Amino acid sequence: MAPYETLHGRRCRSPIGWFEAGETNLLGSNLVQEAMDMVQLIRQRLLTTQSRQKSYADKRRRDLVFTIGDKVFLRVSPMKGVMRFGKRGKLSPRFIGPYEILDRVGVVAYRLALLLELSFIHPVIHVSMLRKCISDSSQVLEAPTIPLDEKLSYEEEPIAMADRQVKKLRSKEIEFIKVLWQNHTVEEATWEIEDAMRVKYPHLFQSTETTADTCEDFVN
Questions:
Q1: What are the residue boundaries of the Tf2-1-like SH3-like domain, all occurrences included (predicted)?
Q2: In what order do the strands lie in the sheet with 95-105?
Q3: CATH number of 70-132
Q4: Which of 25, 78, 162, 172 could form a disulfide with 178, with the two C-beta atoms 3.0–4.6 Å apart?
Q5: Computed over its alpha carbons, how large is the radius of gyration of the chain?
């Protein structure tokens, strides 16, 4: 007697032969047919669920339409050069501009009057990258202050150290520095590991006096 049969009081059922004691037939073609039927049923239920979710999304979706001469903001994507500890500020640059719409290209794209500094970017932009400009001078961000690449992205660079502290663990001590970042306010400064920053940004540690002066000017 097998150990499984001794423990459970019945024979072990294999995946290819779900038979009771005394039966010797294998469920070949029937098992395959049942599996195919289940696959078809699962596909039908998935299509039903997708259709229902699409109907929910379509109720809240609206088409963005601009006219020639409108002012729009262009969305950009920041690339972080180092890993951050804690939360990052939510007021980092997300849009630049405004730029005037010159023409509509197709159904979902527009041609913009970009500046000379952005001549390497194709002027035809998808509507998902645009936001309508409302006349408010506080929302205007000058393009020359943010060097963009061909993918409409920019890399954040540290400009000064504001503070330094040592975190003591059980067996070692880790030195942290408070870094001020370009295109961000003082409140958005982050704590970074000093050794990692020395390797990636050695210019921050060239002169303590220069760093202090830069930090004071940045705050003012």
A1: 69-133
A2: 124-126, 109-112, 95-105, 71-75, 130-132
A3: 2.30.30
A4: 162
A5: 31
CB contact at 8 A, 191 and 167 = no
Q: Which residues contact 42 (CB under 8 A, 6 or more apart)?
A: none
C-alpha span between 89 and 188 (Å, rounded): 5
Q: Are the C-beta atoms of 186 and 180 separated by less than 8 Å? A: yes
Contact 96, 141 (CB under 8 A): yes
Segment 116-174, tens digit of pLDDT: 878 888 889 999 889 888 766 665 556 555 666 667 676 777 888 888 898 888 888 88
Half-sphere CA count of 208, side-chain side, radius 13 A: 3
| Residue spans in the chain of domains classed CATH 2.30.30 | 70-132
Other beta carbons less than 10 A from residue 76's beta carbon? 20
Identify the residue whose tokens are 């004691």.
21
Contact 188, 91 (CB under 8 A): yes
Span 49-87, pLDDT tens digits: 999 999 888 887 777 889 898 999 888 765 544 333 333
Question: For 158-205, which CATH class?
Answer: mainly beta
d(CA 27, CA 150): 60
Tally of helices (H runs) and strands (E runs) in the chain: 4, 10
Classify residue 129 as exposed, middle or buried by CB count within 10 Å of its CB (0-12, 13-18, 19+): middle
